[in-house]
Amino acid sequence: MKKLLPLILLLVGSGAGVGAGVFLRPPPPEMTEEEAQIHAEKQKELDSESESEEPPTSEYVKLNNQFVVPIVNDERVNAMVVMSLSIEVEAGQKDAVFLREPKLRDSFLQVLFDHAHIGGFDGEFTSARNLAILRQALVEIARKDMGDTVTDVLIQEIARQDY
To answer: Is 59 in a helix, a strand, or coil?
Structure first.
């Protein structure tokens, strides 16, 4: 019982302090008529903006696992490239991507292997030109597999580890 007494006193004291703080807090400052009018106008603008917004026309689907691409020179793996991709699709098509994900992953890997084979991951592989070429190839193969519901393929992460 002696060990519980400090704990009980701590809880009672904390509860009393919180209660006193809530009970004794000052009332919120009252707005002048001019401030109330400005606040009402701002709220009306915000409400009209939220009503006029159109629903999103696209969704982004992050593919579950990263893509690992070996960089081979002279029959030896010299580096590995790791990438994370997302697909931009028309609104409501997220589930269709997940249903076709194995096919998409296979197609994407083939594009990535081809890109590695032609030297796309050598040198300045993150230059805008190189990434645009890769992204365009990924979009084309995604549209081949998924149709026109695919808007874009986004490269979210890319890293190269040399050996």
So the answer is: strand
